User: What shape does this take?
Amino acid sequence: MNAEAALDHLRAHCREMPPVAAMQVEVDGYAAGILRLTAPLAANVNDKGTAFGGSLTSLMTVAGWGRVTLGLEMAGETAEVYVADSSIRYLAPLRADLCAEAAFAPGESFETFLSTLRQRGRARIQVEAVVRLPEGGAATTLSGRFVAIAKR
Assistant: This one.
């Protein structure tokens, strides 16, 4: 499957998940190995007028899941993708719309991940995601391990 078709499929899948739809998440694009998701602050705001921590974490988790799912679809593989564990860092309050970017962690090989999935029926890969501040720094970061289990 090509990248545009896989992105369209990912967009439809995100609309079908009630929590993701409630956050008004949009699949903004994919380039250079980075998946980008956005969500409006108005739907994800806390009592301080900043982005709700749960929304930040959720958006980055969905971005990580989406990055793995997108890679699998473009490779022609069918698998269920789950987050196994993650570490979140809240670095600064965000007073703007949310934009998460997710990519495979440095040193990770998607080809090795695919090979393992094809041989063993399951594989894992480390993903890093970030929500940036409008001026460019990081508001929140996620480092997560995602697992794919082949559909048989």
